[in-house]
Specification:
Blueprint (H helix, E strand, L loop, with lengths): L1 H26 L16 E4 L2 E11 L4 H7 L13 E11 L6 E2 L3 E5 L5 E2 L14 E2 L4 E2 L5 H4 L5 E8 L8 E6 L5 E7 L2
Antiparallel strand pairs: 1-2, 2-3, 3-8, 3-9, 4-7, 5-6, 5-10, 10-11
Amino acid sequence: MAEYTSRAVRRVLTAALLLPASVLLAACGVHHPSFADPNNNGSYVVAGPVNYQVQVSRELNQYGSEDSGYLAGLPGKDANLAPTQLWFAVFMWAKNTTDQPQLTTSAFDIMDTQGNVYHPIVFNNPYVWTSKMLKPGAVEPSPDTTAGFGPTQGGLLLFKVNTSIYSNRPLALQIRGNTGKVWATVALDL
């Protein structure tokens, strides 16, 4: 009788271990993009007729070799920081999933929990995000561009923000249409 009970217990334990393992293995190689939850970097959001994704968001170090390249070409009036400011970068990616050409937006802003709003600096640099007409299935930045081939694989939105953003988290990136209407909001990591 003890041998029968021992075998039954082993079968139950084996089944209890194999069931979760089989579920995990079944999910391998399956990617389900999330269009419903814009609250994490990496999630896709539908904003107007285009899907957008924040590749990376982070503070930039103007003295670091990689980050200094992102700041190259800043106009003189925007090139310097006050002691209470820092550079904050959001690297965006977009895809036209419709069957018609679509224009990506150039209207973004960041808002902190105190209602402070920051707008991206417009300047000429091969990493900087610019609004583009995308053919069906096309992406921005294009994979054959500096921004698309770079380490972030996203177009740069550069913000000059107050150091208080670390106290006023989370930050919200607002993606706006040409009329100013907010199409989508994404929470940003710091």
